[in-house]
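BACKBONE GEOMETRY TOKENS
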Amino acid sequence: MAKKRVKRENIFNIPNFLTLIRVLAAVAMFPLIMGGMPLKIVAFIFIAVALTDAFDGYAARKLNQRTDFGKTFDPIADRIFMALVVLALLMKYHMYAIFFIMTREIITAPALIFLRKGDVRFEVKFIGKLTTFLQSVALPAVLLDLGIFSTILVFAAGISGVLAGITYFKDSIDWAGKRRERKRQVRKSAPQTSSLNRQ
């Protein structure tokens, strides 16, 4: 039986570098926030780093540097960046209101654990992009203390996150069902193939 060739792709490109910046920034910001960095500075750094999410997608399309690795790495980087910053703010300043911003991550966590061994890639949907945008706007608004505007954005991000999480969870269940069906079809065809080989 011939081995299936694995297609190699160049992951060392500008879009993936921009995505990597978000992960490195999250790791750097966590101790800085815990060390008492002023919230206004945190807000502006957060905005600057969050903008790389728009630029990496644009660069991937413009430079024709889209990769399967990038499609997988990008949403993971978004979640790492958001989760570490929010966790640091919760631990340092007890800003429990911003926890509502993370509804998507909370809902999708079980699905990510369930599908961790599968080669899963879901198409990015509008509700997911909207949630990421609202999260990126709501958190700085809270840090800059923009009053009722902050509250509205937090609730908008939370509601959008719930809808995005449900959509992702549904896609995960559908993928798992299709995977079981493929395995069932393979098992059914296996005996037929063996009998043909013996003949």
In short: The radius of gyration is 21 Å. The chain has seven helices and no strands. Residues 12-94 form one domain. The mean pLDDT is 82.
